[in-house]
Amino acid sequence: MQRRHFLQALAGAGLLGSLPLTAARALAQTPGALSVDDLPALVGELTLYLGRGEGGLYENVLEAIQKRNPDFKLNIRRGVTAALANTIVAEAQAGVRRADVFWAVDSGAIGLVDEAGLARKLPADLTGQLKEGFRYDNWSPVTGRIRTLPYNTDKLTADKIPASVMALPDSGLSIGWAPAYASFQSFITAMRLLEGEKATGEWLKAMNKRGKNYAGELGVVMAVERGEVDVGFANHYYTLRLKAGKPDARVGLAFTQNDAGCLVNASGILALSEGDLPVNFIRYLLTREVQSYLASEAYEIPLVDGVVPPQGLPALDTISPPKMDLTQLADLRPTLDLMRRVGVL
Amino acid sequence: MKVLLQSCHKALFVCSLLLAAAQVSANGDIGEHVNHLQDNLDKYTKEVNWINERIDAMVDTYEAKGAEAAESDKVVDIWESVLFHSAIEVNYVPIYASIWQGLYGVKEAIDAEKPVNEVRAEQAALEQSLWQALGAVKLAALYQQRGLLEQVKTTSGPTTPVATLDEVKQRLDRVVAKYAEKLPDEATGIVHDTYLNLFEGVEGALIEQDAALVESLEKDFNVTLPKAIAGNGSVEEVRGVVSDMQTKLNSAQELLEQAESERKDVF
Question: Do you know which PANTHER family this protein is assigned to (chain A) (predicted)?
Fold first, then answer.
């Protein structure tokens, strides 16, 4: 849906009225994300469950929001994303609700909480700020990350890398991977959902003969740069960060087309309690300022219109990620079972 | 100059105490006494004397009746039966590791039926570590009295890259301690867990500052340290690797601190 048409539809449905006037005006007038100046002040107290994220940068965002809103108190419980998701579900089963908002580093954990029926519906004017393909009723993606194939630029050019991830095991290339890594397992979950269990199992078996194991995906990118392997599997930001510290690093980024190999996954947030405060808090994370900050400092991909993506990454609309409901990535257990069965884990 | 060095050493030591106190024991139940160190100092002192007497008696038996009669396996039981064990573990892990090293030094010297003067040398090293540990706990008690020491509790984890690297360094001390306790699998488990759950979260920011430093630490975490543990070498060898890593982590902290001070504001 074109933005103008979308705004007309919102106005027609009377939904712009749910925002303060300045915010409604800003949304109507400017293409893309709102500025923090357009948002209402936060007043009251919230408890946020925060899945550990990008080395302190999420903390900087939260601190800035609190500093800007002196009458707002944010209690934060931090932990591993999956563990917090399980805690929220367990607390709900026990009849208690301690968290008002849940910010998770991956959408799979969001899916787990949403599936349990605990997420509140978000207003359409909020979810409508997100790029098409990232609009969900009960949660909001915050920033994205894309699966990439980092390759050694001394050994290869991007056109020598198959456009299909399924063709990689037969490419003759040496490949680095980190099967124990959560992002890699989400990628395999996407493959399982898109290509089926049998094809994914065969792919894993073939890759296992060719793949060289690393503990993490930064390790994969560094091995590619050293020329230990020709190509690897990693989220995009590792390569961008390596190139920031070592501009002549011999590593480039390739993308497969329309398959799990170029999946765009996202961190996400959902409201667990009713009222304007949790929703308005979420609005802060979608502002131009926060999206720009996370793009420039953490190399994450902004998911609202009008914010420049991190340097060194092609625009999102030039990549062809597969269309899929990211919350389905919560279905991790069959993936782990499959990986164990074929001897990858 | 000597005074200055002593002051620096003391400051670092106090810093280590303050940081280590927030750490949770890897050995499960540690007892509430660690949050009331001052009230338990007499007990700890008696325990240290008791340990020294028991070990001394063991070495006397060895001298008089030989290795079998000495029952060297009991060194572990002796150490684990005292409250002081967890008081030092939660407050200053490097000396905790030295105590284990000393205990096994005595045990292995007896088991190898070494001359008694060599066994006595190991015993002296153990005693020195125990008295040093008691000093550390007394200092910790002082800081606890002044409210400068955090309650020993489960924390929700560090929130900044610099704090994360502090925790990484503490966990590396624990790796040496577990290796000294003859628990190499547990030591390796801590290395992997520390890499995946702590270091990996900050190395993205660090690589922007110094790619070569990250390359070097990656190798330490994934090759050098696990290999040193698996190689069944001396505690000193493992401690040497850890010490090198901690030096690199200090540099990493300075770089990240500088980068954070130059970072743009969110709003």
Answer: SLL0237 PROTEIN, THIAMINE-BINDING PERIPLASMIC PROTEIN-RELATED
CB–CB contact B157 A78 (8 Å): yes
Check if the beta carbon of residue B237 is closer than 8 Å to that of residue B191. Answer: no
* Residues on chain B touching A245 (C-beta within 8 angstroms): 207-211, 214
The contacts of residue A67 (CB under 8 Å, 6+ apart) are: none
Average pLDDT (A39-64) is: 88
What pLDDT score was predicted for residue A172? Answer: 93
Hunting for tokens 């090198």 — which residue is that? Answer: B244
Q: How far apart are the first and last CA of chain A?
A: 43
Do residue A290 and residue B266 have CB atoms under 8 angstroms apart?
Answer: yes
Q: How confident is the model at residue B91 (pLDDT cuts 50, 70, 90)?
A: confident
Of A7, A269, A292, A223, nearest to A124 by C-alpha is A7
Ordered structural domains, chain A, with CATH: 3-144+266-315 (3.40.190.10), 146-263+329-341 (3.40.190.10)
Name the residue of chain B whose CA is nearest to A50's CA: B156
Tokens 């007038």 found at: A29
In our burial notation (b when 16+ CB lie closer than 10 A, e otherwise), range A64-93 reads bbeebbeebebebebbebbebbebbbebbe
Q: With a cut of 80, say whether residue B26 has pLDDT above it.
A: no
Asked if A73 contacts A290 with a C-beta cutoff of 8 angstroms, the reply is no
DSSP 8-state class, residue B261: H
Q: Do residues A221 and A238 lie in contact, with contact meaning Cβ atoms separated by under 8 Å?
A: yes
The shortest CB-CB distance from B267 to any of A36, A54, A249 is to: A36
Report ipTM for this prediction: 0.79
Cβ within 8 Å, pair B205-A296? no
What pLDDT, on the 0 to 100 scale, is given for residue A25?
A: 41
* Chain mean pLDDT for chain B: 84
Of A185, A147, A59, A126, whose CA–CA distance to A303 is shortest?
A126
Residue of chain A minimizing CA distance to B221:
A215
Distance in angstroms (rounded) separating the CA atoms of residues A289 and B170: 36
pLDDT in tens, B207-251: 999 999 999 999 999 899 999 999 988 999 999 999 999 999 999
- Give me the mean pLDDT over the A201-220 stretch: 92
Query: Phi first, then psi: what are they for B234, rounded to 5°?
Result: -75, 160
* Residue A141 three-state SS: strand
